Amino acid sequence: MKTLNLWLNPNPRMFPSHSKTLTFNIRYGVVSCRISTSQLRCFSSPTQHPRRCAVLGAGFAGLSVVWHLLKHSPKELQLRIDIYDEVGVGGGASGISGGLLHPYSPKVKLLWEGAQCWKESIKLLRIAEAACVSEDCKIGESAENMKAFAAQKRGILRPAMNLKNLTKLNDNVQTCLTSCRIETLNKEEAQKLVPGLCLPLDRAFYMPEALNIQSQHYLQALFWACKNLAEESTAFASGKKQLNLHKRSVHKLLEFEGEYDAVIICLGANVNMLPEISGRLPLRTCRGVIAHLELPDDKGEGYPDYGPSILSDAWIAVQGPRSIHVGSTWEWKSRNSSPIVSDDEASKALLELLPKASATYPGIKDWVFTGARAGLRAMPPLTSFGSLPLLGCIDDFIGRNHTCKYWLFGGLGSRGLLYHGWLGNLTAQAVLSCNEDIIPYELTSWKKTI
Ligand SMILES: Cc1cc2nc3c(=O)[nH]c(=O)nc-3n(C[C@H](O)[C@H](O)[C@H](O)COP(=O)(O)OP(=O)(O)OC[C@H]3O[C@@H](n4cnc5c(N)ncnc54)[C@H](O)[C@@H]3O)c2cc1C
Known about the structure:
Layout: E1 21-26, E2 29-34, H1 37-44, E3 51-56, H2 60-72, E4 79-85, H3 93-96, E5 100-101, H4 114-133, H5 143-147, E6 156-159, H6 163-173, E7 183-185, H7 187-193, E8 204-207, E9 211-212, H8 215-236, E10 241-247, E11 262-265, E12 284-294, E13 309-311, E14 315-320, E15 323-327, E16 331-332, H9 343-360, E17 368-379, E18 382-383, E19 386-387, E20 390-393, H10 395-398, E21 406-410, H11 416-433, H12 441-444
Parallel strand pairs: 3-4, 3-11, 4-10, 6-13, 11-21
Antiparallel strand pairs: 1-2, 5-9, 6-8, 7-8, 12-15, 12-16, 12-17, 13-14, 14-15, 18-19, 20-21
Helix pairs in contact: 2-8, 2-11, 4-8, 4-11
Bound molecules: flavin-adenine dinucleotide (FAD).
């Protein structure tokens, strides 16, 4: 079976059998779409054939899609999901990311659909956290170690660095979310959180609920949550769910032709190497290096237990009292997606990052460099809504004569953690219902411009 339009209705409430014109009352507005009666019949007709879905890439994007495909697929549907990743879970930018999560721009302006994105990312984090502490979580690391990814609930501090910024920051704070508050602090208040902190304008903006995730641990846990969900769904329902991870390089989309009902491309910055797509997406690449620093035992007490991470011209993501990550560099047009950083590249990164970090945290002079990792961002174009990821069905784009078969979830830029939850959910629902209209226009409109 090669077509998707025989998939069962993932959510019967979404496609009531008596209705032809459907209205989705979604947070971002009201979207209407027409589905023919015959299609509706197809959606709800049971099928003997297992559906096969390939997810290319096991980063934030790929694993979020997998979890939501399993979550939203009908109980009775037999579903097999194959994840393809040449490195394994977290092999790309997601695995090395700074792990900073909040719904604001650098000027603390709420990002497009920030509330929804924030809510759905937190939901996935909780799911991963639960999988981590469950008995079934046997990934070769102690559960205590794995729990660490969730322990970084120390908030994030954004110091005001110049007067022009300060006015903007003060304005933007007014519209912050109640679920991710921003408190305005003076120097004395900020220094209670991080002793020795330097505030050039005596103002810092503190997001107590903002998070700092250990990305690789989070991804491992999310993968296990997916595995658990597949097993549970099989145990309690008639439809068998299968999830496999193949450590294999993907070279072209043609490899999947005829094998799968849906192929979802979540290859991050490497999407451009697919010959069917190469050079045609409005994406720019940008390599970033993150330096790892430790505080020697003889150099004081270390970073305060609940001291927030710092977001400034360079950011400091706190890993523990004697371990921090400092990022990040921005090397536009790079094609180098290797996580390995040469001595030369590391030296250049330190020369750039340390002066910026010490402008707010002078104590960094006592910390010593222990290593560096890097990743390649896939940066989407700037629109009037901000820099939004690229989603949607790309059958027309790649010139294949199928209905909703190849899907893209890419261009997560520097905000993968914020976007992966909600947009992974939307992508999965669009795939299962074979209906791109589920995805907000702002995320699919890139197709009109190429
Ligand atoms: C230095 C740096 C710091 C960052 N810090 C943050 C941060 O603090 N907060 C935040 O929200 N975001 C941050 N980001 C951005 C975030 O990392 C990305 O937005 C996110 O990782 C993109 O996720 P993805 O799943 O689309 O891509 P990726 O994570 O790159 O996943 C793609 C996957 O596809 C696999 N793959 C690639 N090519 C092939 C192939 N040919 N065959 C098979 N598999 C393949 C890779 O191994 C990889 O696992 C940072 C990025 C960088 C570079």
